[in-house]
Amino acid sequence: MTRQDTITAATGPFNEDLNMIRDQLRRFIETEVTAKAEPWEEEGMVPRDVLRRMGDLGVLGMRYDKQYGGAGLDVVSSVVLAEEVGRSTFGGFSATVLVHTDMASPHLENAARRNRRRAGCHRSYRAKRSPPWP
């Protein structure tokens, strides 16, 4: 077993960057979501500003190419995101975020024309505009 295998076996797939993302998400969700989301659930909506702030943190486009405004991380970063939004226990919030990151954005990433990708991905990852685009 190599040193890296030993480290991976001891820590799993997580590294310092993923732990930093987890900590940042946890703080954001505790202060900006859990403390405020009860009315959102009753109204059946998540304020656009919350998604914009998540986009500003860079968590909506973590898996996507840096050249298109993403962070270029792997799927484990999405697992971290899913775990942390799920900790909020607000299903509407969790569904909104995960539909944006794991249902709508991948279509843009995988199938959109290159010129729309450049224009659209960055806005989607920052929650400035939600897919699908007209």
UniProtKB/TrEMBL annotation:
Q: Which residues form the signal peptide?
A: none
Every copy of the Acyl-CoA dehydrogenase/oxidase N-terminal domain together lies at: 16-111
Q: Where is the composition biased (Basic residues)?
A: 113-134
Superkingdom: Bacteria
Q: One of this protein's Pfam families, by short name? A: Acyl-CoA_dh_N
Please list where the region (Disordered) is annotated.
Answer: 105-134
Tell me what this protein is called.
Acyl-CoA dehydrogenase family protein
Source species, please?
Answer: Sulfitobacter porphyrae
